[in-house]
Write a structure and sequence with these properties.
160 residues
Length: 160
């Protein structure tokens, strides 16, 4: 009986650890088994150049506005939490949402790459952001969207 209970608890632990909202670079995602190609098989495109394959075909404008607002909210969140961009940084974002608009996975690639300390602070702040963020649009299925963003150098120094 003890072995069965232990096994059940262990399985529950691995299930909870294995699923959750995660922020990571595209490379880290691939290393953890969350490659873009693997996740794309489980999520449908929110918008697409081929409207027949887009989840938000009829209200793509509303979705795009929500997407842009999310990226702006992220920028504000980083600034409010004293994240300092030392130089102009481009970011490619690939985000996977559940049907309710909650973020399951936020994969990104920063160019130029950040130093180790700054990269970890960015990932931790992004992780905190996605755990509490929900798009105002909802879908009939889990969906994904990708796109670029640009961060400009911040005038203040860390700790100001």
């Amino acid at each position: 009986m003890r072995k069965i209970i232990s096994l059940i608890l262990m399985l529950m632990f691995f299930y909870l650890v294995g699923y959750g909202q995660e922020a990571m670079t595209i490379k880290e995602g691939r290393e953890k088994g969350y490659s873009v190609s693997a996740l794309d098989k489980k999520y449908v495109d929110a918008v697409n150049v081929n409207p027949d394959s887009a989840l938000f075909n009829d209200n793509s404008g509303e979705f795009i506005q929500s997407w842009q607002t999310m990226l702006q909210d992220l920028g504000s969140y980083l600034q409010d939490h004293d994240f300092v961009w030392k130089k102009q940084t481009r970011c490619f974002n690939k985000v996977y949402f559940d049907k309710d608009g909650n973020i399951d996975y936020f994969l990104y690639n920063l160019n130029p790459q950040l130093d180790e300390t700054q990269a970890e602070k960015f990932r931790m702040l992004l992780q905190d952001f996605i755990e509490n963020y929900q798009l105002p649009v909802q879908g009939e299925k889990k969906f994904t969207q990708c796109g670029p963003s640009m961060y400009m150098p911040t005038n203040k120094k860390s700790g100001d």
